[in-house]
Amino acid sequence: MSLGTAIYNDLGMKKGSVMAILSPNCLEYVPVLYGIMMVGVTATTLNPGYTPGEIAYQLNDSKADSIVIHAALLDNLKKAEPELIKPLKHVVVIGDKPENSEHLWYDDLAAGDGESLPKVDIDVKRDIALLPYSSGTTGRPKGVALSNFNLAVNVTQTQDGGLMPIEHGVKQLALLPLFHMYGLLMCGNIGVRSGWTMSILPAFDPVEFLETIQNDKIELMHIVPPLVVFLAKHPLVDNYDLTSIKSIFSAAAPLGRDTAELLAKRLPWVDTIRQGYGMTEMSPVSHLDSDQPTMGSVGVLVSNTEAKFLDPESHEEIEVTPGQVGELCIRGPQVMLGYLNRPEETDATMTSDGFLRTGDVGHMDEKNHLFIHDRLKELIKVKGLQVAPTELEDHLISHPSVSDAAVIARYDEFAGELPKAYVVKTAGASETEENIREWLNGLHAKHKHLCEVEFIDAIPKNPSGKILRRLLRDKEKASQAEKAASL
């Protein structure tokens, strides 16, 4: 409350103004966020890995006039300042306080009097409390306007339906980035509400990650699929005692059945390996698996949420029957207010009857478990037949010589498109690209056969673990152009 009081009274920020947060995970992150929102100021969270240009873009687009920033990132902010439309009014710094600093310091503001917290008239359903930015995989990132009601109701949907533990004192690993909605919900909102004991890591380091699990006896982990692959396949894992882990929850990108089963086999003492599904635009959760998960599924709808499916080609609504594939659409109280200052993009994302078009293609089984196939725009069309890259990637990762993989479409004059795989080999693997291609093709129908496997050092991904296929598509186009020029 002290920070909220200082933001309102000392800094003069009022309801409707915007304050940015630029910091890696740290103890101060959640108190800063709550302090901003409790006095009606909108918080916008930035990726600490952003370049100066990306920082400037979000500060300008969100119209943020002040920022709370970690001391380690001050140089990047300084480099961004020439691109700002207007100078920042206040810069509040988290970290050690140097002498003769021109900035305000978090510790000073947080040490003030919290008893005089102002009474601010907040419309919890309509006022923008949080303004995270979408990943920007299509076009520039967009501000996603979320209300206090959106955020609070999604905590209730996620936890009170029995889909997430509520026991006080559960030891949780807080590695997910708190600027991202998945990390904010599970580690910030639910973790704080439940009184979990959180071990906070600012970034992923293999040794620190495993040592923290072992030494702090972590029981609950919310992670992303690349970390599931790490735990399932990396040789370092065998050097640590991870038997304290009771539950692993994966989200933010699809986790295939084969990968989940590999992890279950390697860590047999883990009671549950579950998935969930959501988007920033849904605050973020719409689906969660139960404590008796269906491998490969992202679970069932959370409470007070509706789903429907659209035909991927005609975009007309289709009947929801087991196995019927379509674009998932969601309606519920957790769905965003809209994109900031982008009414046309908001209208294109929302249907006339209030459903959010997710852009993800999937199906439900007879028990209403949802299975995500892929992004609508990332499906590969081979002679008119759809191929989901994630299906092929999941099988590739199950191969002992493959530590990571990504599949994209390559243009083909006769088939339209053909799937091509980029593969990261495990250390010491002797398999050739052709060996792996032939092995995978033997598992699938002809239209899903890979035209090529190319070894690569690392698969490019965003902070939430989603594959940045556009970078691989650009790499493939450049390769094809080079080949054409040499003919």
From TrEMBL:
Keywords: Ligase. Signal peptide: none annotated. One of its GO terms (molecular function) is CoA-ligase activity. The keyword Cytoplasm does not apply. InterPro entries: AMP-bd_C (IPR025110), AMP-bd_C_sf (IPR045851), AMP-binding_CS (IPR020845), AMP-dep_synth/lig_dom (IPR000873). Residues 6-340 form the AMP-dependent synthetase/ligase domain. Residues 391-466 form the AMP-binding enzyme C-terminal domain. Belongs to the ATP-dependent AMP-binding enzyme family. This is 4-coumarate-CoA ligase.
